[in-house]
Amino acid sequence: MGMPCQVNSILKLNSSQGYPSKLELNTTHQVKKSEYRIIPIDVPIPLVDQHWVAYADVTIAKLTWQNGETHITFSISRIYEQPFLSKS
To answer: What gap in Å lies between CA 66 and CA 79, rounded to an integer?
Structure first.
């Protein structure tokens, strides 16, 4: 018996999941995603919107699993001068 989970190296969020309405350096945000996910902690990873456009790097400080969801606490560590499409 195993535990289903996804391994992610990008944090992809839409507005209903808590995508920040305004990107500001060093601000902390809490979001949740469905299912269990493994995401790197304490290293910058790209933050992308629902269209796979990357706007910033975030650093995840806390990751918890509960009731089939992943709860994530992250801070914005870098804002890109020019957003870019991270998936074609």
So the answer is: 30
What pLDDT shows up at residue 87? Answer: 81
Q: Domains of the chain by range and CATH?
A: 6-82 (2.40.240.20)
Q: How far apart are CA 53 and CA 2, in angstroms?
A: 33
* pLDDT tens per residue across span 14-39: 989 999 999 999 999 999 999 999 99
CA 39/CA 37 separation, integer angstroms: 6
- pTM for this entry: 0.91
Which residues make beta-bridge pairs with 32? 71
Residue owning tokens 């809490």: 30
Closest CA to 49 of 73, 28, 69, 21: 21
CA angle in degrees (0–180, nearest 5) for 13-57-82: 95
